[in-house]
Each structure stands twice: as structure tokens, then as C-alpha cells.
Amino acid sequence: MIELTGSLLSIELAKKIVYENERIDVPDQIWAKVEKSRGAVENIVSQKKVVYGITTGFGKFSDHLIEADDVEELQLNLIRSHACGVGEPFPEKVSRAMLLLRLNALLKGFSGIRKEVLELFINLLNHQIHPVVPQQGSLGASGDLAPLSHMALVLIGEGEVFFKAKRMDTGEAFQLTGLSPVTLKAKEGLALINGTQTMTAMGLVNYIEAEAIAIQADYIASMTLEGLRGIIDAFDEDIHVARGYREQIQVAERVRSILKGSFLVTHQGELRVQDAYSLRCIPQVHGASWQVLDYVKDKLEIEMNAATDNPLIFDEGRKVLSGGNFHGQPIAFAMDFLKVGVAELANISERRIERLVNPQLNDLPAFLSPMPGLQSGAMIMQYCAASLVSENKTLAHPASVDSIPSSANQEDHVSMGTIASRHAYAIIQNCRRVLAIELICAMEAATFRGTEKMAVTTRTLHALGRKIVPAITKDRVFSKDIEALTAWLLNTDLEQVLINRQDTKGEIVK
């Protein structure tokens, strides 16, 4: 059981809730803050004060006063009218993360929402009922209005959900679990949708997957070094300490550890004086991508614990302020940065693939073919990798530099952060496939060199990979191999698996 407080949610805790379905609870002192904030809203309504989003319309309609008898209809109209998302739904893990992050923000006690509504959030998470949320339609300022409205539809018993691997009407899922929808009161509709939780939820999933890819890239690149008889001296600690980047030093250290005991790596001057940059500069390039990940993690963990709706209620209602915390620019920048960092992992991986298959760049069989000429071997795998990295280059164009005015120019600058987060997700999927192709080629090269000469860690990885993709003894439909290995990388904590597969003497456990 994980307690939510609105302030202490980390990526590691969120991962347990989103990926491992850990149940959640809320401490009594947090509920007290929520109830005080709600009392402030009810006082505003009863005293007929003019406060944006509570007794007025929204956006350009902020000058339209709403009668007390109409506030419930106002909230209902808001959710229905703003549910304008289109396209394919977000992955279910993203909509689960949306529920979690919006709940965490509302628990801060600045939003004026009732405990009853937040308890339904908790029940949805604990029952694993996840809104169907279309991916397209958010500008990323005034919050993720369209996607969060689709999330909010579920709270009022409308829209669709994923439940027990099925897509169904919300009402059906509620009947199966005994849950009941809520009727939204003053400000509650606005509190539900005025935030950045869609782009941040997508960003959370992106970070978790990108971090795994970055680790996998170090391991797969290490096997490539063996397949190409790379020069280990380039990873000497003194080189990397001399520059001073912590992440670069860590990548070099990881590669040295992975390749400890290898008889396939060489020293400078033994076969050649220097390797190409795609081998020699692995710590510098991969390390820079780790720097991006560190930046993204910092921004995500701030946003995951942020109050991002409008207006915000302070001092038990004595101060109600309209601001712009819903603007997604910090996450938009972080997602655009993440796109570049992950795209570069794919770029340098593709160059290593080229060195593995190009007979002009190595002493391996041409294109790793069992019968060069008659059989093409890995030739078109490199084409596929090249296509994926080229696609990444278009996806990596920053979304955050674009803006388009909305709501009759009241909302005249927006972040496009949700587009940035969606494109980052696409780049991550492409990068994983490129790494899968590199691993296939690296395994072939290592087999040619002699797996008995490999380091224990890379030999373990080779053995695991061979269970998914057998050796290339003749041409076959390699698409199946790429997708199978990609799925394995997605669902495998590679570092932990490799540690667990070695005994205390460093030998492979069969």
C-alpha cells in the first residue's frame, strides 16, 4: 500500500502503482486539507462572490456570471463539451498514470474538490479501471483539457474504460465492480481538467522506458565492441575523469564492468590505433543521453507533485488566485529534450549496425550472411534501422517552439507539450527496435568470433538473446526476429536479469 500526499510522489513509487498495480491510500491529515479547501468553494458560492471558474464561465466566457442553481449544469457541460479528443487511445498504462497524477495534484488541497470525487479516483486505480483517452486534441495549456475531459467523463459514469483487458462503457465496469459515478459540484469539473497530467503521465511512461533503453544500449554496445574487436583503452577511467561528466564516467565504468574478462576486445595498436567514433565515443554519446534523462526526471518529479489547475485556493479561501500553472511549457521542453536524447541512442546504434554488416568496415562475413551473395543476411536489417532513425529525426523536431492561439485569443500562447510527449513515445519505440537489430547483428558477430572468448556478462546476454532469435543459418523473415527481440527488451529488466543469471563465480546459470 502506497500513501499519496500530493507532495512526495517519485518516479519509483509511481512505477509501482502504474506498472505493478500497487494499491493506494490517503492519510487523514491530507483529507483534512481537501475538506478545508472544499469548504472555501462552498462559501464562495453561497456568498455569490465573483470568482473565475466557480461562479463564472471558462476561458473567454470568464465574464459570464453563473447563477448558483446552474453550477452543477455548468460543470457537466464543461466536461462533455471539452471531451473533443480524437485518434487512437493512449496506452492503458498512460491513462492509469493520468488518474494517479491528477489525484495526487488534487490532494494538495488547493483545488476545492470534494473527498467523494477523489475517493472514486482511488477506487478506479485500485480496481484497475482505466479511462479510454484519445491521444490527439490537446494544446498543452489551460492544461490538457480534451484528454483530461475524457478521463473526467468516467467519473460521472460516461465515456469508456479499459477493464480486465476489455474496452467497455463506463457504466458496465461500474456495475461489475459496484462503483457509482459522482455528480460534479461547483468548480469540480474545472479542477479535474485544468492541469498537465496527460503530458506528464505520458512523460512518466516515456522516462521509465527510456531509462531502460539507455541501460540496454550500454550492454548491447558492449557486445558490438566484442564483435568488432573494439579497443577497450578508450574506456579507461582516466580519460573520462579528465573531462568530468558524471554520466560519461558511469557509462565507461559500466562498459568496462560488462566486458571484464573478455578475450575479444583489443588494446590500442594491437589491431588498429583507434576505433571509429560510434565505438570509441560510446561513453560521450550515451553519457550525454543520460544527462538528458537526469534533466527529464527532475522536471517530471516536480510536475508530478505540482498544483496545476486554476484558480488555486489558499488560506482557507481568503485568497483565491487565477494564474497559469496549467501551462505545460516545462514538460514540453523536457519531452522535446528527451526526444533528442533517445534519438541519439538510436543514431549511434545504427552506425554500429553499419560497422557490423559492411564488409568494407570489418573482417566479418559480408552482411553477416551465411552464404554471401546467395543469401542477404542482415543487409536489409540495416535498411530498417536507417529508416527508423530517419523517422526519429522528423519526430525530434521540437513541438514546444510551436504555438497557436485559442479561446478567441484569451489563451494566446500554448505549449504543445502533449504532442512532444507523444512524439517522444514514438521515438522510444523506434529506438528499441534499432537496438534489437544491433543485438541481432552483435550476436552474429560474436558467434563468428567465438562465444567462449566473450566476457561472462555479454556471453550471458548472448545466451538469453539466442532463446529469442536463433543464429542466422539461412535467410528468413527477419521482421519476426526484430519484433520478438523488441518485445523481449520492452518486458525485461536487462541489468537485473543478467545479474541474476550469473553465479558467485561469474559463470552463466543455465
Automatic annotation (TrEMBL):
What does the record give as the reaction this protein catalyses? Answer: L-histidine = trans-urocanate + NH4(+)
| Gene of this entry | hutH
Q: What class of enzyme is it?
A: lyase
Pathway listed for it is:
Amino-acid degradation; L-histidine degradation into L-glutamate; N-formimidoyl-L-glutamate from L-histidine: step 1/3
5-imidazolinone (Ala-Gly) crosslink, residue number(s): A141-G143
Using the record's annotations, give every residue carrying the modification 2,3-didehydroalanine (Ser).
S142
Q: What is its EC number?
A: 4.3.1.3
Q: Which UniProt keywords apply?
A: Cytoplasm, Histidine metabolism, Lyase
Protein localization: Cytoplasm
Q: GO terms for molecular function, please?
A: histidine ammonia-lyase activity
Q: What is this protein called?
A: Histidine ammonia-lyase
Q: Does the keyword Glycosyltransferase apply?
A: no
PANTHER family per UniProt: HISTIDINE AMMONIA-LYASE (PTHR10362)
Regarding how it is modified after translation, the entry says: Contains an active site 4-methylidene-imidazol-5-one (MIO), which is formed autocatalytically by cyclization and dehydration of residues Ala-Ser-Gly.
Family membership: Belongs to the PAL/histidase family.
Q: According to its UniProt record, where is this protein mainly located?
A: cytoplasm
UniProt xrefs under InterPro entries: Aromatic_Lyase, Fumarase/histidase_N, HutH, L-Aspartase-like, Phe/His_NH3-lyase_AS
